[in-house]
Every structure is written in C-alpha cells, then in structure tokens.
Write a structure and sequence with these properties.
Pfam families: LacI, Peripla_BP_1. The chain has helices at 11-18, 22-30, 38-51, 57-64, 80-95, 109-121, 138-144, 167-180, 196-211, 228-239, 252-264, 282-286, 298-310; strands at 69-74, 99-104, 126-129, 148-150, 161-165, 186-190, 221-223, 246-249, 274-277, 292-295, 318-321, 324-326, 339-341. The chain has 345 residues and is α/β, with parallel strands linked by helices. It folds into three domains: 11-55, lambda repressor-like DNA-binding domains (434 Repressor (Amino-terminal Domain)); 68-165 and 298-322, Response regulator (Rossmann fold, 3-Layer(aba) Sandwich); 167-295, Rossmann fold. The strands form two sheets. It has a seven-stranded mixed β-sheet with strand order 7-6-8-9-10-12-13, with helices on both faces. Strands 2-1-3-4-5-11 form a six-stranded parallel β-sheet, with helices on both faces. Helix 10 crosses helix 11 (252-264). The chain is elongated and about 85 Å long.
C-alpha cells in the first residue's frame, strides 16, 4: 500500500497568501534579522495559520549550522539519581532554547554505542554522556567533532571535558561518619567490581577503615547490581553469615533493597545495622528510616554541563564539585534536618 502524497506548504505559498515577499515571511518566522511592520507581521501570521505552514527544521539546521539539540546518554534512567540529573539537564537545555534528546542505554554497552551513533547522525550540537562502565566511546565522538561533556570521572589520557564529584573522597567521608559513631565491624554493598566507580567507592571505604586502624574484611564486600534487587540479594547473602554492625551501600537503590531484606528478618537500621549510602535523592529523606547519604549538587552540575557545551572551544576542562553528607536516621543520628557539607581532608 503506497503512502498518500502529503503536500508541504512552502514559504512562497505563505508569501503569496500574505501578499508579501518570501524574505519578509522568513523575517517573521525567525524574528529577524530585519524588522517587520506590525500590520505586515499579522498578515503573515494569518497566512501561516490559513495555509498550515510548518517550518522545515532540517532545512533550517542545514542553513544555520545548528540543530538546537543536545544529546544525553545515560546508563539507566530508572535510577532516581540519574533521572534527577536528566531532569536538571533538560531544564537547563530548555532555558538555553535547546531540546534535550535522551538515550537510555539500559546498562548495555552495545546499546550505548548505538545511541551515540544515532545522536551523532542527528547532528546534535553537543553530547552529555555517562558511560555504562566508565569506558566511554570517546574516539567516535571526537572524530565527529561534536562537543562532549562527561558526567563522571574518566581516565586523564582520554583528554575530554568532564564534571564530577570525587567519589573516593565521598565514600571515605560517609564511612568516617559511621566510624565516628563508634562502630567497628564494617561491610560494603558495592557495584560490579570491574566498574571504575565501584573501584573508587570501595577504595574510599577501605581508606577510611585503614586510617582508623580497623580491619577490612574481604568476606564483607558484596558486589551486586546498582539496583534495589541487587541490594536485597546482597543483604540476603550478608545475613547468611555473621552480621556486621555498619554498612556502606554504594547507591541509594541498594540501600532500599537492604532495608527490605533486613525487615523480612525482623531487623532494622540503625538498631541492628547502621547504614549510609551514596548518590541519595529526595527519596532518601522520605524513607523510614531516612537515609544518611552522600548528595551530589545536581542542579549546579547541570548548569555547568550546559555552559561548557555553549562555550565549547575544544580544550579539555575538568570541574570537581563538593558533595554533601546529608544526615538522616539510618546511621544512628536522630536529626531529620541536619545537613553537613563535607570537608575533604
């Protein structure tokens, strides 16, 4: 079955209907570069409405050299931290007159590559990117000449722009908070160990323990997915042995899964297991118990990412943001509202 031919109204037809030139129609549509008398503008707008004219975005992009779009590639939009960052980026892009095209790789590197190729084919004006495992497809992006900002730490030799929080320092600070409570037996629920962000968070956890003269128990390191199910399964494995007194979960979703598994056994935080986590969102404060968590400054980071794309000059720049340790109930603190800004020492 053949598609029926749909006639696309041209600017020439709009000009004919309005009794003016094609150039004047263009000035009205683009709001410049030359002024148009109000009466003429109204005739052109009326003609656009009558004819059903729609601007050709592809032609406009070819003429102007810009598509007014940015691309965003993330590992998994179901993660509330990632979705909060995507929302902040969308708001900043919209304020800059751009559309943000979202690509969710679903924690799949092959899909991640396909998304990047599709966004580059659409000639996005810039790409904001978090790789599934911190091994990004930088060569492909740089070969296209497309501006790119990574939302994570990447290896220095990649020579790319990035914004980040020092995750090793943040993990160290969160663990030190538990140590300050007097706890001595520590476990960690972490992400897959081949991932660089997992390695950073384990490193910070170990560093805090070693600085305090506490033993690192390899049997209390529980790798799993960065999901509720992952946290639940890891906690079930932990409960099969000797229970530690304190736990660092390397993301908020793992912490939620942990609390569920504890509850099923009649246990709770912080009474039986003190808990802090990484990458908390607003959900942490409304959980029972509220979570003590490392918070990243999502809105300032989004503003900086968009600004870096707008002012792109091809030179690699790296910005590191402070994090906050937001105090909840899960660690043993009673305050629901206290928030302390971390001091990295």
């Amino acid at each position: 079955m053949t598609k029926p031919h749909v006639h696309r109204v041209t600017r020439a037809e709009v000009a004919k209907e309005a009794g003016t030139s094609v150039a004047v129609v263009s000035y009205v549509i683009n709001n410049g570069p030359r002024p148009v008398a109000q009466a003429t503008r109204e005739r052109v707008l009326a003609a656009i409405k009558k004819t059903g004219y729609r601007p050709n975005g592809i032609a406009r992009a070819l003429a102007s050299g810009t598509t007014r779009t940015y691309g965003l590639v993330v590992p998994n939009i179901a993660n509330p931290f990632i979705s909060s960052m995507a929302h902040a980026l969308q708001q900043e892009a919209f304020a800059d007159g751009r559309v943000l095209l979202l690509g969710d790789s679903g924690d799949d590197r092959a899909r991640e590559l396909e998304l990047i190729n599709n966004l580059l084919l659409r000639q996005v004006d810039g790409l904001i990117y978090t790789s599934v495992d911190r091994h990004p497809y930088i060569d492909l992006i740089q070969a296209s000449g497309t501006p790119c900002v990574m939302l994570d730490r990447v290896e220095p030799e990649l020579n790319v722009c990035s914004i980040q929080v020092n995750e090793q320092h943040a993990a160290r600070r969160a663990t030190r908070h538990l140590i300050e409570h007097g706890y001595r037996d520590f476990a960690i629920i972490c992400g897959p160990q081949e991932m660089l962000n997992t390695q950073d968070r384990i490193s910070g956890w170990k560093q805090a323990l070693e600085e305090s003269g506490l033993e690192v128990h390899p049997e209390w390191i529980f790798p799993t997915d960065y999901t509720r199910q992952g946290g639940y399964d890891a906690t079930r494995r932990m409960l099969a042995g000797k229970l530690p007194r304190a736990l660092f979960a390397t993301n908020e979703q793992q912490a939620f899964g942990c609390l569920r598994a504890l509850s099923e056994q009649g246990l709770s935080a912080p009474q039986d297991l003190a808990l802090v986590c990484f990458n908390g969102t607003l959900e942490s404060a409304f959980n029972v118990p509220s979570l003590t968590t490392v918070r990243q400054p999502v809105i300032p980071m989004a503003k900086k990412a968009i600004e870096m794309l707008k002012r792109w000059d091809g030179q690699p720049q790296k910005y590191e943001f402070d994090f906050e340790l937001e105090i909840g109930e899960s660690c043993g603190c009673r305050s629901l509202t206290t928030s302390r800004k971390s001091q990295v020492t």
